[in-house]
């Protein structure tokens, strides 16, 4: 199973990604987590990414595409994967198409989670209070949501027109949402 999970910040993507990865026995690959790991360990990649992540801006495509390409080439990704937080703009879609063609492995489905603005703001504020992520400042949050609306949301139409989109309501009980996703994917 090769999947993408898409949706605005605060919609519960990470939580659902982890559950889906367990359900299908595939690795959940989060570009945000890869950047955060590198930032924490002060690697060269981390220092470069930090210039953008802290402001709520996208890390340049060249850098992001490369880490995804390298990650998909790893052994544990041979039989499937779930990408969380990638692609985030049209040029990353083109890059991913290229990687898939090179690997000779088509994408199965794109899970899109959505919730209305107030629910998202509430969840993000809660996470900010609990985890203290350095990119959870009000300015960075607003910027991330705006970037999502402008650059990432239009990609849903791309995948819908390819017949790959599975749109699921991201409001409600975690297990119920998970069951809805799995039911739609297995249909
Ligand atoms: P996330 O945890 O997915 O919200 O990602 C945290 C931050 O990492 C984002 O605000 C971006 O700065 C960066 N990032 C994650 N994924 C991508 C991507 N596909 N393209 C560019 N930047 C990304």
TrEMBL record:
AMP binds at residues 31, 36, 57-59, 85-88, 92, 133, 144. Its main location: cytoplasm. InterPro entries: Adenylat/UMP-CMP_kin (IPR000850), Adenylat_kinase_CS (IPR033690), P-loop_NTPase (IPR027417). ATP binds at residues 10-15, 127, 172. Pfam families: ADK. The keyword Kinase applies. GO terms for cellular component: cytoplasm. It catalyses: AMP + ATP = 2 ADP. Keywords: ATP-binding, Cytoplasm, Kinase, Nucleotide biosynthesis, Nucleotide-binding, Transferase. GO terms for molecular function: AMP kinase activity; ATP binding. Its EC number is 2.7.4.3. Pathway: Purine metabolism; AMP biosynthesis via salvage pathway; AMP from ADP: step 1/1. It comes from the Bacteria. Residues 30-59 are annotated as: NMP. GO terms for biological process: AMP salvage. Catalyzes the reversible transfer of the terminal phosphate group between ATP and AMP. Plays an important role in cellular energy homeostasis and in adenine nucleotide metabolism. Consists of three domains, a large central CORE domain and two small peripheral domains, NMPbind and LID, which undergo movements during catalysis. The LID domain closes over the site of phosphoryl transfer upon ATP binding. Assembling and dissambling the active center during each catalytic cycle provides an effective means to prevent ATP hydrolysis. Belongs to the adenylate kinase family. Monomer. This is Adenylate kinase.
